């Protein structure tokens, strides 16, 4: 009888601990989602203002444009550069100065620019290698004159991992959780284990021996929120452990990022 009571007590404590851990993950992922969303909303506010100001004058003066672009970059360490792209897809002005050598480049074929020009709506692209030679994400906001003539766009090029880290890092530490942010094509934009950033959940050899990872990734894209389990190695080792993940989805312009908080299951 004593053994039965001991086992039941241990089981109750174990289940309570697991419930607390799951609740902690939910709170963590909600906070991270909110913080990332706020950063993206701040970007929208800044570039929409710059686009509106750019559309005011009949002639775009270089000094004014550079000041607006410098304002887009201010206080954002994750921004590579900001640019005014004309209605042909030519980068006319770029700030900061170190990237001005790319002025005159035609980027009309880039995903975000092409879709923004087609839809004439704000657009956030997927990760790509920019003309600056940096793996990044481009956010485009269309510019119109007072008479609704399409003039081009304000472009902000960002280091996606740094942006997400700036929003998620504090909660990761305070809640003791790991975080992952993934594109809808499976590309990992950010992960606490930085060695996995840039890998694709569905196609990278790293995950091919772990079908649970691939199956869960597909479910995360299909379902806006949820939780699940998978087995994978611990960082820097070959030891395979079971992990629980809780995820939510943040929507910005045309795009979705899947945000997950995960922990090893004891």
Distance between the termini: 27 Å
Roughly what percent helix? 25-40%
Find the count of extended strands (DSSP E, 2+ residues): 11
Q: What's the Cα radius of gyration?
A: 22 Å
Structural class of the helix and strand makeup?
Answer: alpha+beta
Helices, by number, come to 5
The mean pLDDT is 91
Order of helices and strands: HHEEHEEEEHEEHEEE
Shape: elongated
Sheet-strand content, in percent, reads 25-35%
Biggest beta sheet summary = 6 strands, antiparallel
Residue stretches low in confidence (pLDDT < 50, at least 5 long) are 4-19
Key terms:
single chain, 266 residues, alpha+beta, 5 helices, elongated
Explain what you see.
By secondary structure, the chain is α+β, with helices and mostly antiparallel strands. The protein contains 5 helices and 11 strands. The strands form 2 sheets. Strands 1, 2, 3, 4, 5 and 6 form a 6-stranded antiparallel β-sheet that branches. A 5-stranded antiparallel β-sheet has the order 8-7-11-10-9, with helices on both faces. The two termini are 27 Å apart.
């Amino acid at each position: 009888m004593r053994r039965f009571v001991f086992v039941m007590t241990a089981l109750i404590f174990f289940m309570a601990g697991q419930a607390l851990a799951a609740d902690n993950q939910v709170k963590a992922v909600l906070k991270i989602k909110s913080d990332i969303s706020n950063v993206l909303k701040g970007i929208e506010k800044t570039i929409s203002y710059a686009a509106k100001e750019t559309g005011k004058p009949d002639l775009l003066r270089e000094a004014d444009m550079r000041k607006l672009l410098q304002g887009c970059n201010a206080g954002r360490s994750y921004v590579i550069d900001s640019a005014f792209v004309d209605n042909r897809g030519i980068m006319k002005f770029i700030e900061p100065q170190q990237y001005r050598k790319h002025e005159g480049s035609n980027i009309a074929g880039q995903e975000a620019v092409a879709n923004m020009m087609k839809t004439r709506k704000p657009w956030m692209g997927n990760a790509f290698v920019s003309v600056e030679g940096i793996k990044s994400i481009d956010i485009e906001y269309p510019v119109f004159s007072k008479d609704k003539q399409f003039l081009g766009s304000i472009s902000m090029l960002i280091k996606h991992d740094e942006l997400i880290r700036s929003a998620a890092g504090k909660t990761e530490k305070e809640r003791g959780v790991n975080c992952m942010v993934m594109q809808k094509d499976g590309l990992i934009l950010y992960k606490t284990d930085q060695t996995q950033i840039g890998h694709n959940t569905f196609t990278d050899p790293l995950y091919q021996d772990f079908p649970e990872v691939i199956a869960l990734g597909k479910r995360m894209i299909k379902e806006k929120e949820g939780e699940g389990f998978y087995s994978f190695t611990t960082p820097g080792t070959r030891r395979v452990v079971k992990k629980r993940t809780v995820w939510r989805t943040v929507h910005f312009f045309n795009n979705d990022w899947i945000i997950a908080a995960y922990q090893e299951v004891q």
